[in-house]
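Can't paste images in this forum, so I'm doing it all in text. The chain is below; anyone willing to post the predicted C-alpha cells underneath?
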Amino acid sequence: MKKMIFISLLAAVTLTACGNDGKQSDKAIKKAIEDYNNAHPLCMAVIPAIDSGVTNVLGSDTVRFTKIDVNGKRINTKAVKQMTALTKAGLYKKHKDEKRPDLGKKVWVSSYELTPKGRQFVRGEMNNRELCVGNLSVQNIQWFSAPTADNGLTVSRVSYQGKYRLHKWAEKVLADSSSQLHQNLSQPVVSQAVVVQTNKGWIDLREVKSN
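Text version of the structure:
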C-alpha cells in the first residue's frame, strides 16, 4: 500500500515538472481555481475595534459608536480609523457627528451609512452581515494528479500554495482590528481543489456543483 501511494504521488509530481505541457497545465489549473476564488470572495463578520460601547458589524446599513465619552475624552480611535478607510474607499458615507446630551453632556456619536458601492462587498441578511475583504490567490501549484474518470467527469486533484489577496481598504481595516485576523490572513495557505476538464478547458469542480 505504501508503495502504491508513493507511485501515485510521484506521478503527480512528474505531471507538474514535465516540460512545456506541464507548464501549460499549471497555468490552466491555476486559472480554473482562481476564477472560482474570484467569484467566491472571502467574506466574514468584522467587528469594529470598539474599546467602549457596542456597535454593529462592518457591512451593516449603519455603523454608529461613541467618539467622545462623558468625560470629554476621545475613545474608539481605532474604529474611527477603520471607518475613515471605508469612507475614503467609498463603501460608507460619514454623517455629521452628533452631540448626545441624553447620554452625557460631553458625549458625541459618529455614524456612517453604507453606500451602493459598499453593498457590493456585503453578504448576508440584516442581522448576519459579512464583509468581503478579498480572495485566495494561487501562488504556485505543488502537484496535480493525472486526469481520471469520476462519475462521468474527467477530474484532477490539485494541491497548491495560496495567499489571501486583500483589498487595500481591507488591509487598513483589518490592520486596526482588535483581533489577530490580519496577521492570520497574511500567512501562506496550503489548500487543495478538484478541477474538471471540459470542452472550454479546466474549471473548478465546485463551479460545476453550484450550477
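Confidence is low (pLDDT under 50) at residues 1-21. Residues 46-123 form one domain.
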